[in-house]
Amino acid sequence: MAMIAYKCPQYKVTLVDINPSRIAQWNSDVLPIYEPGLDEIVKKTRDRNLFFSIEIEKGIKEADIIFVSVNTPTKTFGAGAGMAADLQYWEKTARQIQSHAESNCIIVEKSTLPVKTALAMERILTSNANAIHFDILSNPEFLAEGTAIENLENPDRVLIGSRETPSGLRARNDLVEIYANWVPRKRIITSNIWSSELSKLVANAFLAQRISSINSISALCEKTEANITEVSTAVAMDSRIGDKFLNASVGFGGSCFKKDILNLVYLCRYYGLQEVADYWEGVVKINDYQKERFVLNMLTAMFNTLAGKKICLFGFAFKADTGDTRESPAIFISRQLIEEKAELVISDPKALDNAKKDLEGLNGKISYIVDPYEASYGCDAIAVMTEWETYRQLDYKKIFKSMTKLAFIFDGRNILDHDKLFEIGFNVFPIGKPPQTHF
Ligand code: UDX
User: Which residues contact 342 (CB under 8 A, 6 or more apart)?
Assistant: First the structure.
């Protein structure tokens, strides 16, 4: 919404939320999320044509177009628990819009939703016999965290789905016109509303599938003498395959991949497509397996006991350039290490506040230190969880000197110079490559 306000000064954009402290943060100098470039855009537009408010009813009354971006987490109760999307917030919002709207209105689904949600929303919105007409559009968001501003400014595509009725098509055009203020028209694609809803789930499933594919091969590399970086380079040079999203890692995280795949799996099961559901569920299973394997590798390498050993995690965010830790592999790995009675020191440039919340109540010794030198001081091992650029640049000689020997490094992102670390004296365990040890 900040990008729309920035690119289209002729529109007034108002953001409303039920949470007053969130809105207060958006109106303050310290925004509630860290995203490179966002501060500048909010500063330029706030109180010009971008407003943050808790006056939801007023916002609904005044709007010609309402973007609904409420959360749709995985359901934790009842039918579909652990898989289906929890649509209670979406439904509440639809009912709120229905009670307060005073004129015809376009409703845009911005949240990621299961296919056919628009139909349910349409039913709720038209259930009152008032004369107000609502058109529902699906406009999924494909931005990735850490590069959100870049992705919004220069998107690969903008997808807008609508009913193919005259008023649906008119509404669709209205939204196309907004994006056309800065996105080339050939990148704005339109479709029927169900294709649009499904495309978002499928795009995320395909991206996650690439990571699980390469991660599954990393396990095979570790059993043979193959090297995952060499394999992925060779595979990626086939122009039909390409080189994106082929970095083997400790596993994917983030608020979308797992949730959206499970959602897709649930939909397939719902429609009786067992084989299709099992196929996609495999992507999540491999991701869990990769995280489990990582901890097991640590345990085996460190002589089958981690009890009392001090382990430093480099990074806690689910990826670099964000403070977000949702579904971060570091959460699972920390829990497992604590189970093994290891002592943890967690380091991250942006995610320590979230890390503290994620590990709250965990029964073990954990400290949180931003500075990586201080964090790794006296540790038996370092495990790289997040591909922060800063971890590539450190003085590892200095770090080695300060650590308990034998010093181990487990590079869960394959971002470090493994030969150099080995020369310094570390015992090095990358993903999908032969370990280098001095014993
Ligand atoms: C993702 C989609 O990319 C985006 O289009 C969608 O709108 C939301 O979900 P995001 O969750 O922000 O975005 O992160 P993304 O960059 O896709 O990374 C997801 C996870 O995969 C991270 O944990 C990342 O570290 C990991 N990853 C990514 C790998 O392990 N290997 C790779 O090669 C790429």
Answer: 306, 307, 308, 309, 310, 311, 364
Dig out the tokens for 430 from the structure.
């990358």
Q: How many Å apart are CA 421 and CA 431, to the nearest integer?
A: 15
| Residue 406: cis peptide before it, omega within 30 degrees of 0 | yes
Distance CA(166)–CA(146), nearest Å, equals 39
Question: Which of 28-42, 103-117, 183-197, 370-384 is predicted least confidently?
Answer: 103-117
Q: What is the band of 85 on the pLDDT scale with cuts at 50, 70, 90?
A: confident
Per the residue annotation, which of 8, 105, 256, 268 is the catalytic one? 256
Confidence of residue 123 (pLDDT cuts 50, 70, 90): confident
Q: At what angle do helices 257-270 and 193-223 cross, to 10 degrees?
A: 110
CA 412 – ligand 1 centroid, Å? 15
pLDDT in tens, 131-183: 789 999 999 999 998 899 999 999 999 999 999 999 999 999 999 999 999 99
In the reported structure, the alpha carbon of residue 71 is separated from the centroid of ligand 1 by a whole-number distance in angstroms of: 18
Q: Among 141, 207, 293, 348, which residue has the most ligand 1 atoms within 8 Å of its CB, making it the best to mutate?
A: 207
**Angle at CA 14, nearest 5°, toward 13 and 15?**
120
- The preferred substitution site among 113, 243, 245 for testing ligand 1, maximizing ligand atoms within 8 Å of CB, is 245
Active site residue 256: yes
CA 237 to ligand 1 center in whole angstroms: 21
Q: Is 249 in the pocket of ligand 1 (CB under 6 A)?
A: yes
Torsion angles phi and psi, residue 78, rounded to 5: 60, -160
Judge whether 328 and 385 are in contact, CB under 8 Å: yes
| Type of residue at 106 | I
Whole-angstrom distance, CA of residue 282 vs CA of residue 84? 17
Single-letter amino acid, residue 366: I
Give the max Cα distance, the chain.
79
CB of 167 closer than 8 Å to CB of 136: no
Name the token pair of 4: 């729309």
pLDDT of residue 129: 63
Whole-number Å distance between alpha carbons of 115 and 421: 49
Residue 121: band (very low, low, confident or very high) from pLDDT cuts 50, 70, 90: confident
Q: Does 144 sit in the ligand 1 pocket, CB within 6 Å?
A: yes
Provide mean pLDDT across the span 362-380.
97
Best mutation site among 150, 217, 257 for ligand 1 pocket (most ligand atoms within 8 Å of CB) = 257
Residue nearest to atom 32 of ligand 1 (CA): 245
